[in-house]
């Protein structure tokens, strides 16, 4: 059995697309880079994207010599509106990135329509959104293309990993030769990833969560283990060695297994997310607007707190695996964002949210989560 083709077919079957539309990569950012390159993005071109994102997203643009143009977010949905994006368009705009944030897609149809009227490509950043839907359509299927992530804490996990779905079939022709030149993961890559997946499954839970999380982040920063991002990706805009890498058999096997449980997991997250939303509403706290609940896939529930570092300490004390996405407009960079061309004074909403956001895990029992929130509700905005 060819495990790569099986996994590719399972993804296509789940999303109701053809297998030829799906490509597999070592990480989601490689899918984005490949798609941008297939679209002909290069020096002199501009790519519009949200300011509230991960630094690896503008990196993919900069590696091609193009210019990222940042748009501030709507603070209630953590995404950009079509109106905000329209104001950033110029004759140099080659593509627009439409971001799904923590499972929520926003004004996708409006942005795609705007782009088509201007002859601009659209790519959905669905690294948080696999399996969720927006107005009855799977996230990632309305634009020219979309990329997904299956890294730790994503809708389902293969350790690290990414996928590309090409909806505009005219773009399949330039994508295929790029895929044929992907670097193959080494035996060492696969062995280390296998050990990490095992450790994540059996060790990173309960009282060990924070200890192993800190250890993993330190080791990945030092390059000892495979991490979400390498040090070079966080420190500058030079493409790392072996960046354009394909997916391994280890990831494909993990993905096939994870997909079989995805519907149940999404249902659990939605149910838990609505209960958390109702509690926050009852306490007069900031919430996702109620009108978006039905189309929210609830990877995590975003919550604003007065002092994030203190709140994370509370979570560790109470053994709640609280997330800290995004601690910066270009997560996780806390130093100057000048190398990436982002002037923080132009994106006040992204700056404010990145100082106060935490993300609630929706896989743990809701009563336990609500009890934790009750203890520290005065610290929630």
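^ Assign residues to that structure.
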């Amino acid at each position: 059995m060819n495990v790569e083709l099986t996994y590719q077919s399972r993804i296509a079957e789940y999303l109701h697309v053809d297998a030829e539309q799906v490509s597999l990569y070592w990480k989601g950012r490689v899918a984005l880079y490949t798609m941008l390159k297939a679209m002909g993005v290069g020096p002199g071109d501009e790519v519009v994207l949200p300011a509230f994102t991960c630094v690896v997203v503008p990196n993919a643009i900069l590696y091609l010599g193009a210019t990222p143009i940042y748009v501030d977010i709507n603070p209630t949905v953590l995404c950009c509106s079509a109106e905000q994006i329209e104001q950033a368009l110029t004759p140099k705009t080659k593509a627009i990135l439409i971001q799904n944030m923590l499972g929520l897609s926003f004004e996708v149809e409006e942005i795609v329509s705007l782009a088509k009227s201007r002859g601009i490509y659209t790519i959905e950043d669905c690294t948080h959104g696999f399996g969720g839907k927006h107005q009855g359509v799977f996230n990632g299927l309305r634009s020219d293309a979309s990329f997904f992530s299956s890294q730790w804490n994503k809708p389902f996990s293969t350790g690290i990993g990414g996928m590309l779905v090409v909806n505009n079939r005219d773009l399949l022709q330039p994508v295929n030769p790029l895929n044929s030149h992907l670097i193959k993961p080494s035996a060492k890559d696969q062995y280390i990833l296998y050990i990490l997946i095992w450790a994540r499954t059996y060790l990173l839970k309960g009282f060990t969560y924070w200890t192993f999380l800190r250890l993993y982040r330190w080791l990945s920063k030092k390059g000892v283990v495979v991490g979400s991002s390498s040090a070079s990706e966080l420190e500058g805009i030079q493409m790392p060695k072996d960046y354009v890498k394909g997916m391994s058999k280890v990831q494909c096997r993990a993905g096939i297994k994870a997909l079989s449980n995805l519907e149940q997991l999404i249902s659990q997250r939605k149910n838990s997310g609505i209960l958390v939303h109702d509690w926050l509403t009852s306490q007069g706290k900031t919430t996702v607007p109620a009108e978006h609940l039905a189309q929210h896939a609830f990877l995590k529930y975003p919550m604003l707190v007065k002092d994030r570092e203190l709140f994370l300490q509370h979570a560790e004390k109470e053994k709640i695996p609280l997330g800290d996405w995004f601690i910066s407009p270009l997560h996780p960079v806390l130093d100057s964002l000048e190398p990436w061309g982002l002037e923080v004074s132009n994106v006040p909403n992204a700056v404010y949210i990145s100082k106060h956001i935490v993300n609630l895990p929706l896989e743990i029992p809701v009563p336990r989560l609500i009890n934790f929130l009750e203890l520290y509700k005065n610290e929630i905005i």
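The chain has three domains: 3-179, 187-241, 262-379.
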